[in-house]
Amino acid sequence: MAWDISKVRNIGISAHIDSGKTTTSERILFYCNKIHAIHEVRGKDGVGAVMDNMELERERGITIQSAATQVQWKDITINLIDTPGHVDFTVEVERSLRVLDGAIMILCAVAGVQSQSITVDRQLKRYHVPRVAFVNKCDRQGANPIRVCNQVREKLGLNAHMMELPIGLEDKLEGVVDLVGMKALYFDGANGENVRVAEIPANMQADADKYREELLDAASMFDDTLMEDIMEKGYNDIDEAKLIAAIRKGTLAEQFVGVFCGSAHVNKGIQPLLDAVERYLPAPNEVKNVALDLDNNEAEVELESVDNKPCVALAFKLDDGQYGQLTYTRVYQGKIKKGEELYNTRTKKRFKVGRLVRMNSAQMEDISEGCAGDIVALFGVDCASGDTFTNGGVNYSMASMFVPEPVISLSITPKDKQAAMQMSKALNRFTKEDPTFQTYTDPESNETIIKGMGELHLAVYVERMKREYNCEVVTGAPQVAYRESITAKADFNYTHKKQTGGSGQYGRVAGFMEPLEEKDYEFVDSIKGGAIPNEYIPSCDKGFQKAMKEGSLIGAPIVGVRMTINDGQYHPVDSNDNAFQIAAIGAFREGYMKAKPAILEPIMKVQIAAPNEFQGNVFGLINQRRGIIGETTDENNTSVVNAEVPLSEMFGFSTILRSSTQGKGEFTMEFLKYAKVPNAVAEELIKKHQEEKKAGNK
Q1: Domain 289-398 is found in CATH 1.25.40.10
Q2: Exposure string for 318-354, b = 16+ CB within 10 A, e = fewer
Q3: 476 with 412: CB under 8 angstroms?
Q4: DSSP state, 573?
Q5: C-alpha torsion sign, points 320, 119, 105, 97
Q6: 282-293: pLDDT as tens digits
Q7: How do beta strands 299-303 and 363-366 pair?
Q8: Which CATH number is 408-481 given?
Q9: How confident is the model over 338-362, as pLDDT tens digits?
């Protein structure tokens, strides 16, 4: 079959935890004849190809890694990527969205728009991904898809309209009314595989007419001829193909979101959702993709989804299976051919494409080439997540994805020598796979420190070391990633002078430092008349940046400082790069203590949901933790509280919340910002740092 790019859809499924993403993915695989029994979420070969293939994922009931698979629906090819819902694994979502052309956003018919739905929406908007919405779990008690559609408008600010209405709700869910074709759809057979088309039930005709009119009004904003037809003929006699084209136009422009409904669990509503993917979501050649030209000051270059141009591809996910490293790659332009050489623009190394495969749920299929718009996997390539591959004709890099800074760290110690070897293997792999997971050795204590996005994030990696590498480690208490900053302007004037026999060192650096809000660091050169020669200006910049790695209050990295140099002095013989670097470090330290330094701590955006009767308990828990309570909403007997709480106060919170709400409360949190710590806490931190320093010096 010839590769027809207009018949390809690269889509992802993203949503809040427990909205039913993975269940929906499994149904999609089933209806596209990829798996032959719905219940087997396990049929794996250990490579990481079907949706939750990690034992850990199955146990915890959450998706940790995004998985990719390719399916056929009617005459289109769908590359489907399932993404995690838990905020700790947000980078998995980011990297998947980076390569998607469209998305299915799943919402729960009972809970509606939840905290992570808002995060996912923000990510979809950041990468300009058009989407359709699917309100799942319409068979649950308290389900109300129309209310969810209104929430999508209010909370996410999207132009959302019902494309379907449910026939019956909760345990009476029978099927859906298609508002485009004005037909009722029922899902017969043991697994809902036979779609039966029937007339709309008489008791639903009035509702169907009402919501269809709303849909037509919204769609006509994207097509003038459709608007004219409505004005001339009314709402009943409208060409279906014209309506579909208008909705598609609105969806691709990110100005319209069609809302579908059903329940993946009871096999209702998935086939029309697949039709919607074909109808309304873009093909790869309908999406603008940009690369940066490294030979031309990173100027933006628009890529074309054609085969006859130089190859540009992005490695967006690494997976270490039993057959070696698998690199999931999206081809944006040109072709990847088996046996040809590719060039990694980050490492500047060439490599040969030894084996090229397509992931098809439970099996891998060897292929000879991957065309523009396709998602393929390469074997045995040494690279990191986010690398760009070209075939050497161009030196482009894909714009990098947004990677948040880790906010929590843990020390880990292997139990024995064998575990130490396995630990270094595991850490090497995990840091390559996940940019938000970082590791380093503390120079003072010589401990291995791992950093990540939250307690769950690090707990999962510790557990994976144990299972996948048979490596037992002992973890220390979690540590918060504090920062230091300045709160006032201060001058500095520092001379570094070292005169001994032979050549000495000399450099004087003067200027001022001041607080900077929008970024971590800025260097301003205001030297007049060559007080410091041009060749030593970068040395000053380097020295300042070195000094910022460790603050003098608690040894944390320093952020938010603008350094301006306006005077200095050099010696024709004794001045050199090193002398000015040391002078800049000395100048920074001199100015820093005068600039009223402060300690900053990470503040988390926390959302807690619990039954109404526990609202007082939840407020109490937030207040005890130096939290600030924001918006509170009550819905379906559930109280949802939004708050800002310092991360240092959130350790072990899940256990306390459960015991305070009889096990019914749940929470999500994500990093919000850095803020100044209260004086009492700052004093404690400084005292602790000094004690540790003393203990280390003994």
Answers
A1: no
A2: bbbbeeebbbbbbbbbbbbbbeeebbbbeeeeebebe
A3: yes
A4: T
A5: negative
A6: 888 888 888 888
A7: unpaired
A8: 3.30.70.870
A9: 888 888 888 888 888 888 888 765 5
